[in-house]
Design brief:
This protein has about 240 residues and is an alpha+beta fold. The chain has a single domain, classed as T-fold (Roll). About 30% of the residues lie in helices and about 25% in strands. It is built from six helices and eleven strands. The strands form two sheets. An eight-stranded antiparallel β-sheet has the order 1-2-3-4-7-8-9-10. Strands 5-6-11 form a three-stranded antiparallel β-sheet, with no helix packed on it. The protein starts with 16 loop residues before the first strand and ends with a strand. The N terminus is likely disordered.
């Protein structure tokens, strides 16, 4: 979503949290941590981890350029770094190319590193979220021109998880579908990212919603699915809707 408005972040300030952004090249992460755990050096630490994982990935792409270009499942080299392995495992499960999982993978890796220093964290990377929170959280779903204005009620959980969104009508991310929003919840943010892309690709018309939802729900590790097209939606699994 580089170069697009991120005004939605103006409302991403949970009570009791402190938020900051970290940018490096195309990566633009919005991070929120518990106020009591915030320290001035936390943003610098998060930025250093973004640089670390992006450098790993960029160096690997020099050895495996097809990783960047393919839109299909891919086999990585034996020396692939952690970030590439996370991406390809998630994308292969969803039947898409590895780059479909890059935002979720970076959010998760940086978030896990931050959890070594803080108790709660929310990392948002272009609509893909990795989080560990002790209280329920409400997240609005941006669904383009759809008249449906909904939010997800996300529960507190003992372990971190991912909530990722893909759209064929919002933002510049590559999509072959016309879903206004494809939202997936999973214990793996890279998997949620890849499956959201794959499910959104399957939606051209409202009539595609049931099959696309069933497809996403059939993938191991997916816990909840929400698809929106126009004035219709379909949901599966652990999805709790709330008003915006």
């Amino acid at each position: 979503m580089e170069g697009t408005s991120r005004r939605y972040r103006e409302n991403m300030q949970p009570e009791g949290f402190v938020s900051f952004t970290c940018k490096y090249k195309e990566s633009d992460l919005h991070i929120a941590v518990e106020a009591g755990d915030f320290s001035p050096d936390l943003a610098a630490f998060a930025e250093s981890r973004i640089i670390f994982y992006r450098t790993q990935l960029e160096n690997y792409l020099q050895l495996d350029p097809l990783f960047l270009l393919t839109l299909e499942p891919h086999l990585v080299r034996a020396d692939a770094p952690q970030v590439a392995l996370l991406m390809v495992r998630a994308a292969n499960a969803a039947g898409v190319g590895p780059m479909a999982a890059v935002a979720g993978a970076l959010a998760e890796l940086v978030g896990l590193d931050l959890l070594g220093r803080v108790k709660q964290v929310i990392v948002e990377n272009g609509g893909d979220i990795f989080l560990q929170v002790a209280s329920p959280l409400r997240v609005a779903v941006l669904a383009g021109d759809s008249p449906l204005k909904v939010a997800l009620e996300l529960p507190a959980r003992a372990s971190p998880y991912g909530v990722c969104t893909s759209s064929g009508t919002v933002g510049p991310s590559l999509s072959f579908g016309k879903a206004d929003a494809a939202v997936v919840i999973s214990v793996s943010a890279p998997l949620a990212d890849a499956v959201a892309t794959a499910a959104g690709n399957r939606v051209q018309e409202v009539s595609d919603l049931p099959a696309a939802t069933a497809f996403a729900g059939s993938i191991r590790g997916v816990e909840g699915v929400l698809l929106i097209k126009g004035d219709k939606m379909a949901a599966w699994g652990n999805i709790k809707l709330a008003p915006t």
